[in-house]
């Protein structure tokens, strides 16, 4: 049975983007909440993209070349138009003197731009580092999921997570923190691939691993303690340990949260995440993330005409900048992004024309793919794949990632 649009995952996107807005518009103490939201979005993206590709791969009429081509075209339709519209606007008006670095952002190399310079200049585009990370992931990951033997996928995920963790533990030996430790691709692969590993596990089991259920609560408590300790004055060694802990310890709880919500979180938390206003913000969260520094720049510039303080982090900035960001993201979604998404139907992941003529349609090809190890599993149809893909893509196309951009 195909996954319909997961309302609770949309709710998670709202939760994640809210932490980003809180960190950039309100918090004045270098809050780590924005980065926690970033990590949650990476897990969500890894999970959704992998689940979608596995569903395409499980159909008997699956053709790797068609699926890969369709994936890249559909990603371009979803991500490129608003992204390049923002870059064009920033270049045209030279907002915050950002024109000189536009080519790096246009090539989705923002993370390398900031890492090489080791400073957040220009600040108005500093959030694009995470969009670059995701685009770099999107280029490679479909090739892995669609072309690698199925039995290799989980070992590949585990190896990538191990390499990412090794990258983190390497940095204390350098002696000096730098933006490169957070912005280069290995720093985010653990979160992205943890989501992918969750999708692989869920393809053969409806429940989370027992060890994950047991460890999530203690790790969550440990993460909360480190969050509390972060603003304190710490020795260099303790600061390194705190940083590593805040990068690593929340990963399992965040992955578990995505797993619970993808199958339907029960009780009041689940109902809260499914509220219409919450899911509506989740659907436009790509625009919310993309536009929020632009809106902030104009809000700060308009301070002489605003009767309360928006020049600094605080409640006034949070209310006004958030309202402007949500309004702009809603207009963009209704007038620009949503109409363009309709063109995705011309690029299905599997060839629908064979659906009526293929006598083996909907039947497992064999036991080599673990999706068919469960005799109750029904292979999805090409039409169902196409429809579900369009709905799911609206979820994992919102790579909201930013934490350390200094507030204006």
Structural write-up:
With 408 residues, this protein is an all-alpha fold. The chain has one domain. The chain has 17 helices and no strands. Helix 1 (7-25) packs across helix 16, helix 2 (33-57) runs antiparallel to helix 17 and helix 10 (210-229) runs antiparallel to helix 11. It is globular. It starts with 6 loop residues before the first helix and ends in a 12-residue tail after the last helix.
> What is the beta-strand fraction?
under 5%
What is the radius of gyration computed over CA atoms, rounded to a whole number of angstroms? 21 Å
What is the N-to-C order of secondary-structure elements (H for helix, E for strand)?
A: HHHHHHHHHHHHHHHHH
Which term fits the overall shape? Answer: globular
- Estimate the helix proportion, in percent: 55-70%
Mean pLDDT across every amino acid position: 86
End-to-end CA span: 48 Å
Which key terms come to mind for this protein?
408 residues, mainly alpha, 17 helices, 66% helix, globular
């Amino acid at each position: 049975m195909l996954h319909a649009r997961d309302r609770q995952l949309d709710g998670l996107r709202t939760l994640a983007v809210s932490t980003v807005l809180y960190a950039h518009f309100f918090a004045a103490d270098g809050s780590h909440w924005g980065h926690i939201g970033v990590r949650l979005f990476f897990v969500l993206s890894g999970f959704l993209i992998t689940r979608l590709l596995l569903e395409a791969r499980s159909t008997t009429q699956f053709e790797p070349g068609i699926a890969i081509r369709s994936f890249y075209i559909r990603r371009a339709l979803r991500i490129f138009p608003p992204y390049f519209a923002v870059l064009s606007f920033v270049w045209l008006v030279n907002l915050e003197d950002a024109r000189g670095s536009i080519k790096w952002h246009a090539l989705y190399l923002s993370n390398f731009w900031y890492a090489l310079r080791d400073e957040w200049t220009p600040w108005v585009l500093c959030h694009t580092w995470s969009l670059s990370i995701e685009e770099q992931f999107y280029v490679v990951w479909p090739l892995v999921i669609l072309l690698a033997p199925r039995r290799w996928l989980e070992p590949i995920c585990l190896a990538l997570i191990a390499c990412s963790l090794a990258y983190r533990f390497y940095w204390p030996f350098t002696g000096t923190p730098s933006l490169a430790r957070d912005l280069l691709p290995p720093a985010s692969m653990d979160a992205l691939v943890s989501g992918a590993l969750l999708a692989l596990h869920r393809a053969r089991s409806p429940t989370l691993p027992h060890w994950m259920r047991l460890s999530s609560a203690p790790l969550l408590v440990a993460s909360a303690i480190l969050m509390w300790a972060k603003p304190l004055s710490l020795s260099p060694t303790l600061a390194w340990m705190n940083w590593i802990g805040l990068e690593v310890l929340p990963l399992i709880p965040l992955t578990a949260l995505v797993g619970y919500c993808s199958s339907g979180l029960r009780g009041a938390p689940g109902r809260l995440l499914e509220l219409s206003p919450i899911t509506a913000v989740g659907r436009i969260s790509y625009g919310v993330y993309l536009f929020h520094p632009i809106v902030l720049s104009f809000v700060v510039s308009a301070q002489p005409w605003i009767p309360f303080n928006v020049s600094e982090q605080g409640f006034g900035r949070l209310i006004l900048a958030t309202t402007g960001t949500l309004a702009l993201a809603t207009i963009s979604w209704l007038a620009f992004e949503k109409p363009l998404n309709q063109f995705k139907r011309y690029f299905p992941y599997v060839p629908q024309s064979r659906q009526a003529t293929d006598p083996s349609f909907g039947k497992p090809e064999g036991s080599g793919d673990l999706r068919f190890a469960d005799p109750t599993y029904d292979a999805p149809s090409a039409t169902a794949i196409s429809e579900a893909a369009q709905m799911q893509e609206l979820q994992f196309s919102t790579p909201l990632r930013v934490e350390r951009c200094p507030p204006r």
